[in-house]
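Lay summary. Proteins are chains of building blocks that fold into shapes, and those shapes determine what they do. In this project we predict the shape from the chain. Here is one chain we studied, written as its sequence of building blocks.
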Amino acid sequence: MAGAEMLVHWLRPAEKVAQLVVERRGWDHVETALANPKPILFVSPHLGAIEACGIHLAMRIPRQLAALYRPPKIKVLEPLMLASRDRENGLAAPANAKGVRLLLKTLKAGQTAYMLPDQAPGAGDGVWAPFFGQPAYTMTLLPKLARQFDATVLMCFAERLTWGRGYRMHVVPLPALSGEPVADATTVNAAIEDLIARAPAQYLWSYNRYKRPAGAPKPGEENA
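And here is the predicted shape, written in a compact code that computers can read:
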């Protein structure tokens, strides 16, 4: 279902996709954040309709939205994906040094960014933190960006409604971060778990969240 709707969302006019979000819960947090000059960091895991969530934000937020992405495994799909994510206020940023610099520039300008927090980072770019009771190598980039730019961090996802009725957007503020990498990664993972609990059947459980990246230490060995 996720693969089929992704292609539809890439090909359909952006405003048509944005209109598929027929209900929004917690949108007042977005409005409060927009009333503040601080940048906003939207964080959406592999849950629900990822493309619809990002497109709705790009169409409804009066700021530039830089979205960090990893190229699809099917290379021929990348131009299509980029054409979709670069529409309106959207700006696709590859998950490499160039893309991170683009994210930094966007947040420094007081704009907005969109990230998936449950992708396994490369060695040295993460720490081990619990995720549903098991250690998962979790990115440190998100907390670093939030602290560096004093950004408002909003967790979000677009829940699929039954019978093709569209999507329900959920927006929840991320609890305060401490500045300690493992504690912050634990906070982020707990927030992801809370979102998943709202629609557990719509999480991409097939994604290997618990893999150990090449060169990364074993759980509990970071300080060994």
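What the prediction tells us: Residues 34 and 205 are 33 Å apart (CA to CA).
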